[in-house]
């Protein structure tokens, strides 16, 4: 049985929920109140997650406390299709890992700006936003050229990977931190595509995506 | 271009919330922004609350502690705050669900709080669901005596009306706006249909286009932990937040011709007129500008 | 209301997106001269450029759902139509047809050279620059630069992607480069606001067959050059306060600012359409596709009808069959009536493809609620037309429904293609006699439950029977909606009485032989009407005092008994005086 120690409004937790959902895994949730309860700083939680990070995933005898580690583990362990983490393809493994890195960089920039705006966390918000824009610009360029090459996802595969799930939350929520996506049209199209992934679950703060195009009846 | 600091006498003379007492470490100095000014505040069980303008003078400000929050004013406030009699009922659980910053004016946030028609679309499968989208006729009154907007007989179908309900039901609401930046809603309690849960939003105007939204819960619920009840409200508020942040203009336009109301917006129409009548200029675009 | 920025040249039309940006089922967020735009392509290919703001509560439409036919606002689910941006549905009031005047602000659109162009100014002629069209055109990746347009234009003069390019000309935020041996290039600066602009480039004369220079190589080459340019300009200009030039917002029309619904237009024929196609849609049924001579047609909501003004002087009402988002023409189905008074015969025998007809704007007196858990649509014969529009809408919204279609034979079923597209929700009932029809109606209507609604349209006797059966089955009258083709009753016009028009402060006499509608119009009061035989509901008036004699087939029994409203074209008075809210 999988257990997720979860806080609804955390984008790292949302990465884990997305992965569990698209993999069709059943799991139980334990609410850890990040705000205002600061439950992640309690002794019992620190025991699970020494760095007091959310989310935490427990699967039988394994306990993991890092969002990207959780995605890698879930895909490696529970994805029968082998597409979410294409382990046999060294290029794709490299690409996935690179985007997981970008997702961390987004958490410390776009994510930090969001926490500053909504919960008043102390941060240099101007610097955080500037960094987020640099990352989004890079992402937009990558995705735009991807479209030119007929690619829809972050990695050079014809299907989404955990990289898309890891990068999506902080991108899709960036505007809550005052980071507009108006200048990143390819990123905006990609977020629409992510919302249409089979099994996608929304979260508070994200709008539903609507369905993909069907033939126009005449 | 920075917006000028508040010169609106109506708003300066109001009480404004600064922080939930439960989230204010006792005996320490804290700072926050109110009406574009930096305000210091402190609280302790013995000394109560204090607030001051930061800077050289440390000018002391009036304070109140009500409904679990520290309130202050930058002008000459009335003696007391509006009343929420239910708050003092002994079997209620009172708590701050969250204090969250939102990039919107206070009046836009109040209007959203008064609105039921968005439930099926914004709070899908929680406070509303398609196709149950109709907002039936309800009553709106502006009480001259109490100087507040009151909406009654408000009914809406809800698939999951609160943390303590799992089935769908028509829920009845009453909304009060006793303060330009504060609103209170009463909704049928899942535990005791004869009584009502109270949810209030107190908006701290950081500037004309930013607020800190303090969300007070005063509920009848024996089944859930505090954090479950808060979590439910936080996720509801998290759904409204991006709507509010995507409204344009961010200040509430009071000219009746700037937006298109329908019958379901009766309470919002009354609220806008009430603000106009008070001559409020902060956080709004006054008519005729 | 548009402002041009000081120091900017006067070209009104600007590119705001590339065609490839505007993919299906997506809403592109754009910006021009400080104004945000929602740009979206409907499934039929049409690109819409709208103010990025729902006129109800100001929420950005770039976060709306593009369902291929309409935009659905995220806040309250209001739906806005492809092309005209008219509001087609307000979920908070499912029983009401939205006033035609609820319409978001649209801007003119031209899609050319791989770019989407618009102008914020009204009635400006298309002053699009003409780009060379030799060889194939290749739009570059647009690059946003945080600098005023003039600085960007200045920097672009020394654009250095390729030694092959020479600046040939410059005007109006446009720089044209000739390629000495390779493709030429046009660079356009889109002024987003006072401190931001977007550089859009189009390569022309790209030799697709050249294996040495691939498309991607060219795109990357120019993207690198534009990125270099952006970095240089931004560091020269330094950090700027974001453009704070909030555009002035246009006020909504007076009638939309108040809560009561807007008044409806009279029996006018403001639309001119051309018969684009006429075909046999079933036995004795002619299908007509009517396209506008210029501009766009107002949206016909499901259940709406138009008055068709015929060459022989007759005016007839026909329901519009269109599905949501099918906005480029009206589709009507006209049955040849054996006792035609000149309407259907004229349309069948005289009107041909290419003919021009005058139409009224569509009116919806038979609006479709979309808040039912299950909707029954029961059609007899050509009564299928409004119900077909409804069924297509319900299907598009994914709402549970059944369309029961009674006809003489299979061949009499009209609009086969549309019925087929609706699939299993269509139940065909052919060749039933009166008794069998009654029995079948009884089966269909037996399933009354809360959350269900029924819509009836067909010949008078069938509607009568269905309404009776529905009542027997326990359907409350407010859940049984119906529309008659015509009023089969004998209309008594013999009485005389007085009518007070409360709002106009007028009293008029209605003598025998004249209708209230005629008397009111004679007194100079404008009054909308359509069928003028008590069937369509357009000329409805509220009764303040008096005892009406209804004679119409629009109101249901409860509405008639309440005496609160009348159809001024046929209703009369039993009391000597009627007071109307007119």
From TrEMBL, chain A:
This is Glutathione S-transferase family protein. The keyword Ion transport does not apply. Residues 89-216 form the GST C-terminal domain. It comes from the Bacteria. One of its GO terms (molecular function) is transferase activity. Keywords: Transferase. Residues 1-82 form the GST N-terminal domain. Pfam families: GST_C_2, GST_N. SUPFAM superfamilies: GST C-terminal domain-like, Thioredoxin-like. PANTHER family: GLUTATHIONE S-TRANSFERASE-RELATED, HYPOTHETICAL GLUTATHIONE S-TRANSFERASE LIKE PROTEIN.
UniProtKB/TrEMBL annotation, chain B:
Keywords: Dioxygenase, Oxidoreductase. InterPro entries: Cholesterol_7-desaturase, VanA_C_cat. One of its GO terms (molecular function) is dioxygenase activity. Residues 104-276 form the Vanillate O-demethylase oxygenase-like C-terminal catalytic domain. Signal peptide: none annotated. SUPFAM superfamilies: Bet v1-like. Pfam families: VanA_C (PF19112). PANTHER family: 3-KETOSTEROID-9-ALPHA-MONOOXYGENASE, OXYGENASE COMPONENT, IRON-SULFUR DOMAIN CONTAINING PROTEIN. This is Aromatic ring-hydroxylating dioxygenase subunit alpha.
Automatic annotation (TrEMBL), chain C:
It comes from the Bacteria. Coiled coil: none annotated. Keywords: 2Fe-2S, Flavoprotein, FMN, Iron, Iron-sulfur, Metal-binding, Oxidoreductase. Residues 266-369 form the FAD-binding FR-type domain. Its cofactor is FAD; FMN. One of its GO terms (molecular function) is 2 iron, 2 sulfur cluster binding. PROSITE patterns: 2FE2S_FER_1, 2FE2S_FER_2, FAD_FR, RIESKE. Residues 13-118 form the Rieske domain. Residues 497-582 form the 2Fe-2S ferredoxin-type domain. InterPro entries: 2Fe-2S_ferredoxin-like_sf, 2Fe-2S_ferredoxin-type, 2Fe2S_fd_BS, Beta-grasp_dom_sf, DmmA-like_N, FAD-bd_FR_type, FNR_nucleotide-bd, MRET. Transmembrane segments: none annotated. This is Rieske 2Fe-2S domain-containing protein.
